[in-house]
Every structure is written in C-alpha cells, then in structure tokens.
Design goal:
Helix content: 10-25%
Strand content: 25-35%
Number of strands: 16
Radius of gyration: 21 Å
Largest sheet: 6 strands, mixed
Low-confidence stretches: 5-18, 205-237
Order of helices and strands: HEEHEEHEEHEEEEEHEEEEE
Length: 237
Amino acid sequence: MKKILFVLFALGYLISCKQPSHDLIISQNKTSTYRIIYGEKASDSLVKAVTDFKNHLNIITGAELQAFADIVGPQPNEILIGKSNRTTKYDNSIPYNVLGSAGYFAGTRGDKWIITANNATALTQAIYDQLTRMGSVKVVETMTQYSQKNPLVIPADQDLVFKPTFSYRQVISTFANNADYRAWNRINIDNLKDWGTWEYSMERIFHLNHTSKLTLNIMLKSDRLKYPIKSTSCPRI
C-alpha cells in the first residue's frame, strides 16, 4: 500500500511540475493577458528599453501591456525581460555561458516568454532585435515602420540563441547620431561628434548579403510624416 501511495504521489508531483509546451498568444484583438516583468535592480537604461518595448508592442498589437519590477506577485502569463526572481527556475535550460557579452536568448518556458542576456547592453539590443524580427524597423530617425500583429503568437519549442557577427564599416550618415535610431539598428559608435564614423551593428546595417536593390512598400509612422510612401528603390551601398 505504501509503495502504491508513493507512486501515486510521485506521478502527481511530476504532472503538477510539467511545463506545458504550446504556442503563446501574447495578444489578440487588441487585448492581452500578459504583462512584462524585469528585475528590481535593472539599470535605468534597461528600464527605458522595457518601456519602449511595451510602447512598441502597443503600436504593433493594439494591446496595452503593463510592465513591473519583479517585486510584484507572479501570475501565469508573463514576458520576462532579463534576469529576475522569475527566471531563476529556468537558469539550467538557458545557455548563458554560450551567449557571451553580446548575445541573447529568447524562447518560451510554459506560459512565459523569456528574453534575456548577460548584461544590460546585450539585453537592450535583444529587445530591439525582437521588434525587428516582428517586421518593424526604424527607417530614418523620424520614421518608424511598424508591422501589425493580430494575433501576436510566440511559437513554442523554438528557442533562439543569437550571437551577433560584428563588422566594422565607415558610415556617412547623420542618423547614427540619433540615439533612438541607434537603439533600433543596434549601432554603437566611437565618437558622437563625427558625421561619418566607425560603427558596428548586429547584422543589420549594410550587410554584405544585401541585394543590389531593395524595394519597400511601407506605412511610415512619424511625428512629421503621417502618410504612406509607395514603392521606393534603394541603391546598393
């Protein structure tokens, strides 16, 4: 009898601890049951990036998500940004040792969507890289192209371990002096005073695999410009 009870108890424990594997519906029809959680000791720059992420998700999905430090009580549906008291239980399944100082991890664990890295700089780049992978992009410093996602679904069992390939190129562009543009395009520059300056980017700016021409059909959202631009051909740089 004791053995039977032990087996039943063990099975019950395993079932209760099993993490479901299913796609996460972050938002649908401009509503969401998710909220964003970040570490209580997150830097000011990271908190700003989280706020930007929340605002951009609102434009992309129409849903208003809230963002809180991890001192609030847990709930099932959460987007976990960076290391916090929520991510500790998943540490063994996230390859922090592989990420290095510039890479990041994004994936699902049960009902959680986790985006994390080893430092605030890489995590900020990760947030904007995820927005770009959703189809949004900062075209110029005053124009942002947003994709529309209804619903916004994060596939299960598709962990992303991203490590950037850094390339140095000379860039003649005043856009690189704009902090928002740099954040969207993952650019670090050596000298803010230079009009043409050396930069490195996370496989986004002037990639070697660019085609000779790029045709864009975009709807631009800007404080100065609020109308669609038709197809535009951009010469290879």
